[in-house]
Amino acid sequence: MLRLYVCVLEAKDLPVKNSYVKLKLGKFKSKTRILRHTSNPVWYEEFVFRVLDAAHDELVVSILNHNHEPVVVNGGLDLLGEVRIPVDSVASEDKQILPPTWFSLECPKTEKFVNIYCGLLNLFPCSILEISL
């Protein structure tokens, strides 16, 4: 059984002040705590996901606006942007470890909001380890 270790470090230049991160790998989901009053949040939170199919699985990391009332940001309801990382890109690395990396957030796709800067996300898709049962 394979496990993917991920550390959500921080984000920069977000267009909102209250945000959190959702992570999804296959059917497994998790999220960070909500950080308020900053457009440059620092989470430093670690997550572990079970990898069912390393060749086809994809880690989807989304940053969302947290507000008591829904707000339209960049054309999408509360979704600021996301990053998609194929699990096999981590598995193919030497020692199956990627360094901390700044990813540009991909904005929600609408005709009205094309090529808008949504901020950056610093992730550490740490490693893939094989766990024997």
Concise structural overview:
This protein is mainly beta. The chain has one helix and ten strands, in the order ββββββββαββ. It has one domain: Immunoglobulin-like (Sandwich).
How do the strands and helices of this protein lay out in sequence?
Elements: E1 2-12, E2 19-25, E3 28-31, E4 42-51, E5 58-65, E6 72-73, E7 76-77, E8 79-86, H1 87-91, E9 101-104, E10 120-130
Antiparallel strand pairs: 1-4, 1-10, 2-3, 2-5, 5-8, 6-7, 9-10
Pfam families: C2
Domain C2: 1-103
InterPro entries: At1g03370/At5g50170-like, C2_dom, C2_domain_sf
How many β strands by DSSP? 10
- The rounded distance between the terminal residues' Cα atoms is 8 Å
Taking pLDDT < 50 over at least 5 consecutive residues as the criterion, the unreliable ranges are none
CATH architecture: Sandwich
**Amount of helix:** under 10%
If you consult CATH, what is the topology? Immunoglobulin-like
InterPro entries: At1g03370/At5g50170-like, C2_dom, C2_domain_sf
Protein name: C2 domain-containing protein
